[in-house]
Amino acid sequence: MTLTAPSPAQVEASPRPPRTAALALMLGAFVALGPLTIDMYLPALPEIRRDLATTSATVQLTLTGTLVGLALGQLVIGPLSDAFGRKRPLLAGAAVHVVASLLVLVAPTVGVLGALRVLQGVGTAAASVVALAIVRDLFQGRAAATMLSRLFLVMGVAPVLAPTLGGEVLRFTSWRGVFAVLALYGVVVLIVGSLALRETLPAERRRSFGVRSTLGTYRMLLRDRTYVGLILSAGLTMAALFAYVSGSSFVYQREFGLDEQEFGMLFGAGAVWLIAATQLNPVLLRRWSPAQILVTATVGGTVAGAVLLGIAAAGFGGLFGVAIPLWAVLFATGLALPNGPALALSGYGESAGSAAALLGAVQFGVGAAISPLVGILGNDAVAMSTAIVGSLALAVLVLVAIRPWQLPDPQDDAAPVLAH
User: Fold this and answer.
1) CA dist 85 to 3, 10, 16, 139, 350, Å?
2) Is residue 9 part of a domain?
């Protein structure tokens, strides 16, 4: 891995970055489709289990279906966005999400619901991968990590509000009404994106699309040991987050007796810590590199997870004995989440869509695997804690193996590009 400066042609072809606040708000609105789709129906999981006459583990597989759709969809949409630009795949994905959400309104069985959740995931995959690619089109290095932190602020509002909003919707309608609200939100962002989002990948920088070309790009990415380690670490960090997401409704409602609205409030309180960390990240980047913050946050999250597991196993402290170390884990993951992707994508300007797609596929693929594991382990605080601390401990081991702190530190959006 060596450092090379971008050529004058590359600099000229790069679009001038728009106002970052407006860009973060618009991209965040699209990316929020994912957290809303994942989190908004969480308070309804026990109701879905009763209504469709199934088991808790089977209902959790509908969450896994969404994550599978997100993972596989990104692998296709990423190369498409490198070949045809960012805007068209983004809008097409939002349209697929709307259609899938409307079809859930008539889903007769948990199997059909699971299949439609996969389709929802494919639709939201476009927003996840294209948003990262747009950031890489316009920024790199610390500037990219800062922009991703702003994006995560907007994204963070979604998991804060989603369970609470879902709980309020359930006051007036059944669990299917949650998906009607998701369809309405999808229509809104589809209209806004059509009118306000501009293309960030000029035609001269686009890549050819085809099976051979796509596989060749993925082969190149997978040969980069540092990139693979960074996306694997990001995936394991996301797995810890999804272990919390998939298990929290059962832990808070079944183990501690909270109702749907109380669960939504406590879930939102946890997400505040995630948001706070992402907004502290730009301040920390003024003094420390993305790699230093990534490693420190992952180690800190592992320690907090170990404390959580110990408290859960001992049955000490009741509800807040579990919630407080959980919040510490969320704070640590909030620091890690923007920096891992920024480092992983820093060397791939010409194939940002494919690089972001593989990153997202690993993140949501590992998340899809961890969600049913929490149910298999027992859907209690010990099971959730075990999955969290195991994921973060593995992430630490991966980071030790690739030593990201030895990478060159790009200082801003004019920094040299990593060549491979």
Assistant:
1) 27, 16, 16, 17, 12
2) no
Q: Which two tokens stand for residue 280?
A: 């502290």
SS3 at position 419: strand
pLDDT band, residue 350 (cuts 50/70/90):
low
Query: Per-residue pLDDT tens for 70-125?
Result: 878 888 888 888 888 888 899 999 999 999 999 999 988 888 999 999 999 999 98
Task: Answer yes or no: are the C-beta atoms of 39 and 159 closer than 8 Å.
Answer: yes
419: β partners: 2
User: Domain of 287: which CATH number?
Assistant: 1.20.1250.20
Residue 170 in any domain: the answer is yes
Measured between alpha carbons, how far is 344 from 228 in angstroms, rounded to an integer?
8
| Element housing 367 (H / E) | helix 352-377
The domain in which residue 285 lies consists of 18-405
Distance CA 86, CA 193 (A): 11
- Count how many residues are written for the chain: 420
- Cβ atoms of residues 154 and 28 within 8 Å: yes
pLDDT class for 296, splitting at 50, 70, 90? very high
| Tally of domains within the chain | 1
Q: Are 404 and 145 in contact (CB under 8 A)?
A: no
415's CB contacts (< 8 A; 6+ apart) are: 140, 141, 142
- What predicted TM-score, i.e. pTM, was given to this entire model? 0.70
Evaluate whether 26 touches 94 at the Cβ level (below 8 Å): no
pLDDT category, 418, cuts 50, 70, 90?
Answer: very low
Q: Residue 13 pLDDT > 50, yes or no? A: no
Query: Do the domain assignments include residue 11?
Result: no
Do the domain assignments include residue 345?
Answer: yes
DSSP state of 291: H
